[in-house]
Amino acid sequence: MKGKYLALILTTLMIISIVSVLSLAFKPQPTMIDDKIVVAVDLAHGESDKYLPYIMGNITWVEWRIIAPGEAITPETLADVDVLILGQPTTGLAPDELVTIQNWLNNYNKVLWIASDSDYGGGPASQQACNDILEFIGSKLRIELAAVYDDVHNAQRYYRVLTQVRPDNITELFTDIISENITHPILMHGPTAVIWVDENGTYHDPVNETFPGLIRIVWSYNTSYIGDNQAPTPYLYSPLFDINRSFVMVAAEYWNETNTLIIASGESPYGDYEPMFAWEYYNVTLDGPQFIKNMIRWFETIIKTYYITPPTPPTTPPALTLIGEITDPEGDDKGYGNLTYPTNEVFQPGVFDLLKFAVYEDTDNIYFKVTMKNLGNNPWNGPNNFSLQHIQVYMLTTDDTLPKNYSTIGLNVWIWHGWNYALLMVPGWEDTGQPAPAGQLSALYNATGGVLAVETLNDTIDVYLDPELNNTVTAKVAKSLLQDVDNIKNWIFVVTIAGYDGFTNYKVRQIVAGNATEWNFGGGDEKAINASIFPLIIDLLAPTADDQYMMLSSYNIENGTFAVIGGIKLSTGELQSPPTTWTPPTPTPPTTTPTTTPTTTPTTTPTPTTTPTSTPTTTPTTTPAEGIPGTLIGVIVIVIIIVIVVAAVVMKKK
């Protein structure tokens, strides 16, 4: 009987062992890397290197890099850098350098230490430079525009402030490393405090107010106070009220989404008059060297323990080949010569002024690029990143066997030489999922009114704000949609700019006689408007403004006929001028049939927008195990064998 009980106990132990091992197998485990980290130190912006040789000589388990005076912070400089320290820069970083640091941080697993100074002497320049960096990268941390002094805990002068290393206890972020083997204070010579700012621009005291991701590291004693030496005034603290209290002197912000640490400190670890690395000052024993060692070890631990595989950089698209481009005069956005913009403030000067039309290609696509003087900052959040313009491109190929159309889509003009393809480039609201003008999606038509492609419905056409050319809307069209594409440089193009209105016929903004209204263009010919023949084009691709005005004024009120316009041959830039007399072929079927009711209100309610920001948290990112590791399987097998052997021995004795 005892043997049975013993066998039962052993079986139970075996099950418990297996469950325990399995729980370890499926517990989220940090991803470790073993490479030596690279620490770069900036000396290119006026920083001192006073104790840098000592630091590099004592901390030998990392690879050190120096950004020397006269150099710049470039992508090449930071290519394999894990930790970047700027120890009290006295000059601001160039815009390109700020962008470089931001892009570097976007590669994950980085540490950026920004160290400043008090507002004494040349300190304000350093404070400004540091805060510019912190703001640009999206950190909440800020350098206070002040000084911190202490009449009690100092190295024989009130500005030689002694501080305490007391990091917040965050076990999962290993903050205990920071204070290991530290028994003496840290010197901060003429320092300032660290504060933080929220998304509303309100400054906060980190001593009493925290946010997710904040790690307070070094504190002044409760005998310290604020000094204000020169303008500008401090963001938060006051020398009248902030006395005999502690301040946070070094703080960190952890972004767990990217495993990134941002450090801000009121003194430099390696440079300045007497850096934080100091080991003794005016007979005061200090733990500066141990603190800097601990910080580097902490950085290394965070980077390696919670290492996140960086996102794969986007592949570089194939280089585009320019087929041809045509410029248009600036300032001719007056239609037939007298039009004026609607009066609402969204219609900024130049938003309907066409400057250039260009055609590019790669292996599979043609790119039509339309450059405006000003796209207008997308006031109604058009999905294609513009809101105000209705762009139409008509193409006549060299293939005479293709059908031709001579009408236009809601513009009240004829194209005398005709066209084979019409490209509508519009803001792209997907209210009905239909192509413009019945719907609000960009589309490509053939001359018989057939829809060849609609954006978002397939991958053969895409309209977007060009990422490289300012104020340029690009339409990418698959070559497979176009015939005679090998001869495209000899095609004739008509490019028109009208106002976009999602609630009018053909989605074209209307024109009134006399003064412009809030939503309608003014200066139109009243008789032509009443006869429904007035051109609704604000700018037309033409060699000169007079060419445009002449073509758009060629309507005939007595006969009730539209104006007649011509395009430009891409290879030569030559205008295909309309003949003196021209009669449109009959019958000419309408290209498309709109189904909307005319109105003059904008497509969406104009509202200001802001870029959302994310709030980092302190929960570290871990990578779950994808299965049972081989070593754990081995442990399970060993446990089972031991249990079986013990059971056999017991049974044998019985």
State the secondary-structure class: alpha+beta
Radius of gyration: 35 Å
How many discrete domains? 2
- Mean pLDDT comes to 88
The share of residues in extended strands comes to 15-25%
Q: What is the CATH fold-level name of the largest domain?
A: Rossmann fold
The end-to-end span amounts to 10 Å
Instruction: Provide a count of the helices.
Output: 8
Profile the largest sheet.
9 strands, mixed
CATH structural class of the largest domain? Alpha Beta
Can you list the strand order of the major beta sheet?
A: 2-1-3-4-14-13-11-7-8
Helical proportion, percent range: 10-25%
* Low-pLDDT segments: 19-32, 587-631
Number of strands: 32
Overall outline: elongated
**CATH-level-2 architecture of the largest domain:** 3-Layer(aba) Sandwich
